[in-house]
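Each field is listed here:
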Amino acid sequence: MIARVFLLLASAVSLAGCISSRSISGSTTAHIPRDATIAIRVPADGSYAGEPYPGSGRAAAAGLKSALIRFYPRVEIAERGDSDFTIKPEILHWEDRATEWSGRPDRVSISLQTYDRHGRTVDASVIDAKSSWWTLGADKPEAQLTRAFADYAGRLSR
């Protein structure tokens, strides 16, 4: 009996510790048709407290593409080109912490500006995400973006 109670409590604590948070704010009101072509620009790499995170811009663009490709088969990471829509991410905050040792969560904030082929803004959103205070592995900030980008892609495809 005591072993079952302990196991139940340990499971509850481990599940609660794994929960991360994410939010999307802004004007996610654009609807992009599923047959549209989408170009994603690679943002400049993020930094925190003077420490640069090389490759973070490319990781953010790749994560966004992975989320969008489920809805839009013609999405590419491209610096130039002719597309129906262009998404320009900007890393506002990129904080990679040793959460498993410090209890301090990874945090990431990305602005997403979406333009039509005429250069008009059709959407402006900010995604904020952070890891839980407890983790068993060395998660990275880009891992926090997976679900947030999926939510964003789902909103655009409605």
